[in-house]
From TrEMBL:
Its main location: membrane. Keywords: Membrane, Transmembrane, Transmembrane helix. This is TCR/Tet family MFS transporter. It is found in: Membrane. GO terms for molecular function: transmembrane transporter activity. The keyword Transmembrane helix applies. GO terms for cellular component: membrane. InterPro entries: MFS, MFS_dom, MFS_trans_sf, Tet-R_TetA/multi-R_MdtG-like.
Amino acid sequence: IRGMGRVGAGIGLGMVLGPVIGSQLHVLGEWAPPLAAAVFAFAALLGVFFLFPETHPRHAQHATPTPERPRVSLAQALAQPGIAPVLALFFLTFIGVTNTQVSLGLLAQERFGWGEREVGRLFALYGFLSFVVQAFALDWLSRVARSLTLVVLGTVLVGAGLACIALGGHPTWLVVAMVLVGTGMGLLLPVLSSLASALAGPELQGGVLGIAQSAGGLARVVGPVWSGFLYSRFHPGAPFLSGVVATGVSLLVVLSLLKRPSART
């Protein structure tokens, strides 16, 4: 969990700086934030190419020959005890958060007349809390509580935050919501990755983690469409209420994992 937390802390730091930079660049024009994002993405590509060491034994220089690990199919991953519920948790977690990323700005503008800077500060707060949890608190929490306990705590925090967004009639509730959601996601993402890794075992670890990320990616595909439909068809708070429902289903999934001895870590 410690390693996953450090990776997540780096992502959280980017989520602190990204909204602030984007909201400042927006004054130059609507083209400026996407262009800046493209520049940062290209810089990341260069960093990976020139700075990252090769970790695949077959391609590393002066590596001793090692047997190649078998490719992991979705069917193989699902056959592993506990993996299917973890994939469901990845999907449900990301579909709830995608609702926030897609619809929060629209809701803040419609209810409170907020613009890009105010919404950018909300997402910076979200990223800051995720960074603090993953960089400073997660290591200690993982030593005093089981992984599934942390998943329950993170899920409850995210659900409470989404409920605050859906039902809150004052801007203060949006701030409270981002504190809750940021803290909850700071717990959930590294712990879920660690849990998937532990359940997969060393031979299937990489493949299962890739499939788990794909489950989150599928939620990022479905989520914006679903969120936009709910927002336009029903009510500005509807996407966030659907996120609350998703967290409720997540808690039921965690209960199914608690019945598996292999997942009680």
